User: What shape does this take?
Amino acid sequence: MTKFLQFDCDLDTFIEELQKHLNKNNKKIETLLGQKEKTYANFVKPLEMMDEYLEQFFTPLSHLNAVNNSEKTQKVYTEALPLITEYSTQLSQNIEIYNAYKEIMQKEQTSLNSEQKRVLALNILHFELSGAHLDKKTKQRLQEINLKKSELSNNFSQNLLDATNAYEYIITDEADIEGLPKSEIENAKFEDDGVVKYKLTLQMPSYITYMTYGKNRAIREELYRAYVSRAPQNAKIIDELLALRQEMSQLLGFKNYAELSLATKMAEDTKSVLGFLENLLENSIPQAKNELQELQNIAPHKLESHDTSYYAEILKKEQYDIDEEEYRPYFEQKNVIAGMFTFLDKLFNVTCKQVKEKLWHEKAYAYDVYENDILKARIYLDLEARESKRGGAWMHNWQTHCIDEAGKKQLASAFIVCSFPPSNDTNPSLLRHDDVVTLFHETGHTLHHILSEVNENEVSGVNGVEWDAVEFPSQFLENFAYEPQVLKIFAKHYETNETISDEMIDKLVKSKNFLSAMGMLRQLEFSLFDFKLHTKVYKGDEVQNLLDTIREKTALIKPPKYNKFQNGFSHIFSGGYAAGYYSYKWAEVLSADTFYTVVDENIFNSPTAKKYQNIILHRGGSQSMQELFHELMGRDADTTQLLRLNGIIK
Assistant: This one.
């Protein structure tokens, strides 16, 4: 059994080492192709593991670039990207490998197991979607497109990070920070020539805090304007990316990028996706309008975009007598982590034990994960915001559970990254409940990857899972962050150790779907914009015009003209969600349906929870999620459960 990898990334030698890896791989490919009798064991398996080892080598660099970003990581990552993209593109277009896979699939049809057949089927599909079967000139153009796309996506992300880090707003009047949580006031406080001042930034904890609690409307508008107008240079990148995606799609025989995107997803066609989104929209609009009217009733002026979070907090407190700041002492970061681990133990018999490991930052921690007392994986947690770290939250897989080419078992590992309020010697990291939900969400992704029992790495864990199903396990787990018997495990006051009261839990649960229909409209706006944007070529003002057209229905408060949301929409321009942002809602149907079944069975005694562990978590991408969900529930997913989860229908 192989040990877990040591986290190490030598930036000085990385490019040289990467080039050696790629040269070695290319020689190995030649050797493998030179075999007269190609089989799954002597051809497919070595290629699979070759990709796994390259990913293991490259991941620390991409991770560092996201969590300890510096001029040096940027430089090395920017140099590495074209090398890895060119290699990957050439590999994915290699007609000899494509033909060998088809031949092995046909020749060994009766002797291959279902995992191996899935590996071959997905590879054959991916080769075809990479243009392996096309002429030399077309393949060359596709390679150029892929190189340019990866460069543009990286630039988009870097522009956004640079713009976020470059902005600060200095407050000198203490009246302007009145009402902010004490911990955030302390984080913002600094002295300049003996004068106490307060620095606000566009980092998530700082930005969200002022938009929610800041009484000075002019400052809220200034922060909002800065946030929604970040990185204007990304508009040009969007034009280039959209044109390249359309050209690529047509070269591969699709009408548009949306159709190409759906070739590897659960959704059948573009009509199915748009119908799904429009149906949710129609069901949500009436309640959303009522919610907005309630908000408007308490505001002394016409609501603008920079007002909603502030007045929402006031209304939430009025309706539910709930003040988020009262809850934060019950969600001290370390208590939440320990409590979440206890919950996982009770639900899945999964335990996490901290191990000493030298990592990339003093606030990063490693844990070994055991399932039924058997060592299964290692996870790394890096949860606090800092300037060198990309905003948001994510899970990134590193090692994948599989049997290697020598017949040895490899265990899985993954990173969980969040942007929680930073702790220091005098202030603990006190989370908002939304942060708790985020932690559960990313842990859900992590369990999906690390608890896999699949032996083929390309369909193990999150690998091989359809993109519109990949959010299912994360959304499933996040729902438990609202369950009373789960909250009681970890919601304890960090100073008194007092468990959160039933009254506070009741208020939190009742407030869960506060303004949920407005939230649904916002997500549907993003989904519709993304999907329609990829059904034909939009350029320049046409991008904004499309968004404005969608907003006529989804945005009950008209955003100001300076709102260029698209320039910061990293999910689709530097992440993997292009023509796939709808996946969040698509997967949420699966998660809501499963979640309610488990809750109705009393959570910790739920047979469905055990089936979920054995079918969904253990089998990863070894079968279509459509098949796995049918096996789990014995039927198709019930769409109305999503509306129920959001309180839009009872």
The radius of gyration is 25 Å.
